[in-house]
Amino acid sequence: MTHANQPHGTAHRVAAWRRRLTEPSRLLERIGGLVFIPALAALITLDVVLRYAFNAPLSWGLEANEHMLVIVFMLGLPQCTRTNGHIHMDLLSQHLSAGARRAMTILYSLVGAAVFALLAKRAVSEIPYMYNLPLETEFLALPLWIYNLMITVIAVFLMVDFLLRAAALLLGADDSEAGGDTAGGGLL
Known about the structure:
The protein is mainly α. It has one domain (8-85, 96-182). It is built from seven helices and no strands.
């Protein structure tokens, strides 16, 4: 292998590492979309029927809904990020050159990695405190440290994904190879 081919080969390997995160990301999305969203809909429906038909709402229903909504959000976040499913503004990027868009994607990826690194650091630092107290939710008595653990795992997952994307682009991969898996979105 010549020295000229080495950076592209390294970029290809980094992009391949990023693609290895696709299936875990899709699995998390499926769990959120196929397990928690229907459970959330069923719980909301049950609570509404009990509240308005029998004047007997679930005392823990709102709390359960709030926690399931956070779980759905956290489980869907990696795949949404990988498929570029977030709301974003094309107004600026559509008028930039390919090199400037590439630089923006690298900057976006590095900032994303930094944000999720800080989130993971904060969440993991609170786990021992929450575990030792022990802090629990009001009605369901669920340990709060579990949510921080989930936030930590998802934040580390996203941080690694952003770093791999930035590294692949910096090493010369094209944007389609290092970018989001735009064809791989959806629940099925």
